[in-house]
# Entry
Amino acid sequence: MKKYTYTKNELAKQLDIQTYILALWEKQFGIEVSIEQGEPRYSQENYDFIASIKELLYEKGYTIQEAKKILKVQSTVFEQPIIAASILNLPQSPSQSLKKELLVLKQQLIQLRKHL
# Structure
């Protein structure tokens, strides 16, 4: 029985990302894909790994460098990115800390505006 693989377009559509983003992540994260009939093919393992990248970057708000560290630790020791993030002393949700900082800055700007 042949193991199913995804084309670049199928994978991009399934994960709701652009194909150029997929190509960028291949390079950034060292994703190895097989070539069948001159076309890249992605395994289920590739799919799962790329879905993890998307979650860390888009949903959790990590940078590419942070995501690389998390995925490296996750692949060798842990199964959950959140556990890996805590071991690496990375914030659980960088977007939350950024929101807090922006709210503080907003309040400071409001106060400054009152004095003008």
About this structure: Residues 77 and 86 are 13 Å apart (CA to CA). The longest helix spans residues 94-114.
